[in-house]
């Protein structure tokens, strides 16, 4: 792992970063999304702004749009033009967002996950599988997964029915499905990173297959899974673990706290509390 570029992207902490369609999208507590072209040799393109009165907590791009989560709503924005396409009203602050072709999902502080029709903005369902704030949400086809402050990972179908619940020993701050959808990586505060093998036919047969519990003090924020590798961001470091070989690579980031990470095709983007985005290969 080596540092190849540092992008001065924001005036506030970077809260979410994504690589999408040959671009880097970074969201911040300053309420904007910075867009850079060419992840290998990033060049500033433009900025998305004006869609929230406070900072952004989460973004999720799809096609030529990006879903922004902040305040008590989520907004769907056209990346190239900064045009507002739709908004989705929530009851509490939105902590995490995810979109599919026809649906939008939001996780919020009131303990709910909400599903909306993507184009019309109509709320379709409310999932209530948590006793406190929901911190992260992920979806794939007809499966929705949420992680919460209560230490639960809850699996739902699109009808709002709870299919299975994992009860863990700390708040679930982030979770990611692998590309095949049969593996789930979960970050549990105070515990570490847990890797589960999913049985998509019988979710109750889901099994814990690996635990990374030695990185908790240094890697406190966000995870990303890309093929067989897991990327961690945390206090002054970015690390990458190979699930097959067990090898670990680590890069020290001086004078910054990494809050979010993403990876694609050998490129890692790490967003810092300083407002910078660190590009690593």
Task: Count helical runs.
Answer: 0
Instruction: Give the low-pLDDT segments.
Output: none
C-alpha end-to-end distance: 5 Å
The SSE order reads EEEEEEEEEEEEEEEEEEEEEEEEEE
CATH architecture of the largest domain: 7 Propeller
Strand arrangement within the widest β-sheet reads: 1-26-25-24-23-22
% residues in beta strands: over 45%
Corresponding CATH superfamily of the largest domain? YVTN repeat-like/Quinoprotein amine dehydrogenase
Return the structural class.
mainly beta
CATH hierarchy, class of the largest domain: Mainly Beta
**Chain-averaged pLDDT:** 88
How many distinct domains? 2
CATH topology of the largest domain: Methylamine Dehydrogenase, Chain H
Helix content: under 10%
**Can you count the beta strands?**
26
Write down the Rg.
18 Å
- Main beta sheet, described? 6 strands, antiparallel
Identify the overall geometry: globular
Describe the protein in words.
The protein folds into 2 domains: 1-22 and 219-281, Beta Barrel (Thrombin, subunit H), CATH 2.40.10; 50-216, Methylamine Dehydrogenase, Chain H (7 Propeller). It is built from no helices and 26 strands. It has strands spanning 3-8, 14-20, 23-28, 33-37, 43-48, 58-62, 65-70, 73-78, 84-89, 94-99, 103-108, 113-117, 123-127, 134-140, 143-148, 152-157, 162-167, 172-177, 183-188, 192-197, 207-212, 223-226, 229-242, 248-264, 267-272, 276-280. It is globular.
């Amino acid at each position: 792992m080596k540092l190849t570029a540092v992008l001065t992207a924001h005036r506030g902490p970077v809260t979410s970063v994504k690589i999408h369609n040959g671009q880097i999208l970074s969201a911040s507590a300053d309420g904007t999304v910075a867009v850079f072209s060419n992840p290998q040799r990033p060049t500033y393109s433009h900025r998305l702004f004006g869609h929230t009165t406070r900072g952004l907590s989460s973004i999720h791009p799809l096609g030529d749009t990006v879903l922004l989560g902040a305040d008590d709503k989520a907004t769907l924005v056209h990346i190239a033009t900064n045009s507002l396409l739709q908004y989705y009203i929530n009851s509490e602050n939105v902590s995490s967002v995810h979109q599919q072709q026809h649906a939008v999902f939001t996780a919020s502080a009131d303990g709910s996950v909400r599903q909306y029709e993507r184009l019309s903005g109509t709320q379709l369902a409310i999932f209530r599988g948590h006793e406190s704030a929901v911190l992260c949400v992920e979806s794939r086809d007809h499966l929705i997964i949420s992680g919460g402050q209560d230490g639960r990972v809850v699996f739902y179908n699109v009808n709002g029915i709870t299919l299975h619940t994992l009860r863990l020993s700390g708040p679930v701050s982030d979770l990611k499905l692998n590309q095949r959808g049969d593996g789930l990586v979960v970050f549990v505060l105070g515990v570490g990173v847990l890797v589960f093998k999913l049985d998509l036919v019988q979710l109750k047969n889901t099994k814990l297959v690996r635990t990374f519990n030695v990185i908790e003090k240094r890697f406190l924020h966000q995870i990303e899974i890309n093929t067989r590798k897991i990327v961690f961001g945390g206090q002054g470091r970015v690390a990458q673990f190979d699930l097959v070989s067990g090898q670990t690579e680590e890069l020290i980031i001086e004078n910054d706290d990494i809050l979010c990470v993403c990876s694609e095709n050998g490129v890692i983007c790490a967003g810092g509390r300083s407002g910078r985005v660190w590009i690593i290969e």
